[in-house]
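Example S7 (structure tokens).
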């Protein structure tokens, strides 16, 4: 039994473009006539990964330190926007829910202002905040041209954005957990959810960014947009699922949406694809 054509194409896509152009047909022919196709496919994927990272190793990363730092810094700005925007929209949504009889807004002693966290408008307000930040991030991607002058963009850009998002979230967890909880109880379930979400998100982004880049180069812009939409939706669902498994089934949906990794990863996903889209347009302009 031979590997499906999709797996062969995926393994070949891991190679840098100049390697695919020169050796692509030869590699496909080798796999088609190999007596050990699965073993050879694994070797092809492994060598392609080494070749891809080799393009990064051969180009010293020190000159790119500032640009990589900019990519790490971008999620921090999104994180601040999410942190500021969500409480405001939550209070407004709770107030709207109270006015139509489906939510509550009350002021009580130590608890302060309480919005109706089980109210439908609250979930909608959270979605609006994340959507606005994602749209602004996509538009701002045009200003990040210096940060895009990096080797192996489909590998480096997702890695830097994911690390930046994870770093800002971990910093918030460290502050809130250690400031409000005794040290003996400092291990919050979110500490487990964040690294798991980080790894899964990086794998998802790297795979879909490669696919998106291929579609864009083929001129299939509609299919490329569908990849972005799917990646954003899957990111939100994946992060919420991981947090749900970590916190238990009692956690309300609004809690999963408002806290942890979910809103930040969801906003950063279209931003990452926008960066790669800008890079492609610049490549076309430079070559044309």
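Recovered sequence:
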């Amino acid at each position: 039994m031979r590997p499906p054509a999709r797996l062969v194409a995926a393994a070949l896509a891991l190679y840098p473009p100049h390697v695919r152009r020169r050796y692509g047909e030869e590699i496909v022919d080798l796999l088609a006539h190999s007596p050990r196709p699965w073993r050879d496919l694994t070797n092809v994927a492994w060598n392609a990964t080494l070749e891809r990272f080799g393009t990064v190793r051969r180009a010293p990363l020190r000159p790119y330190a500032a640009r990589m730092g900019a990519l790490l810094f971008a999620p921090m700005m999104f994180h601040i926007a999410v942190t500021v925007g969500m409480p405001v929209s939550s209070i407004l949504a709770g107030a709207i829910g109270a006015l139509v009889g489906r939510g509550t807004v009350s002021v009580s002693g130590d608890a302060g202002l309480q919005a109706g966290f089980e109210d439908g408008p609250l979930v909608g307000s959270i979605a609006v905040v994340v959507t606005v930040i994602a749209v602004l991030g996509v538009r701002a991607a045009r200003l990040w041209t210096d940060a895009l002058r990096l080797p192996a963009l489909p590998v480096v850009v997702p890695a830097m954005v994911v690390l930046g998002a994870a770093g800002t979230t971990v910093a918030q967890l460290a502050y809130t957990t250690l400031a409000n909880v005794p040290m003996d109880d400092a291990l919050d379930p979110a500490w487990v959810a964040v690294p798991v979400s980080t790894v899964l998100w990086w794998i998802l982004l790297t795979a879909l960014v490669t696919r998106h880049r291929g579609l864009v180069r083929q001129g299939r812009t509609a299919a490329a947009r569908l990849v972005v939409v799917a990646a954003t939706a899957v990111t939100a669902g994946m992060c919420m699922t991981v947090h749900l498994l970590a916190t238990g089934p009692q956690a309300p949906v609004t809690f999963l949406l408002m806290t942890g990794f979910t809103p930040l990863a969801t906003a950063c996903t279209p931003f990452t694809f926008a960066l790669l889209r800008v890079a492609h347009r610049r490549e076309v302009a430079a070559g044309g």
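Notes on this example. The radius of gyration is 22 Å.
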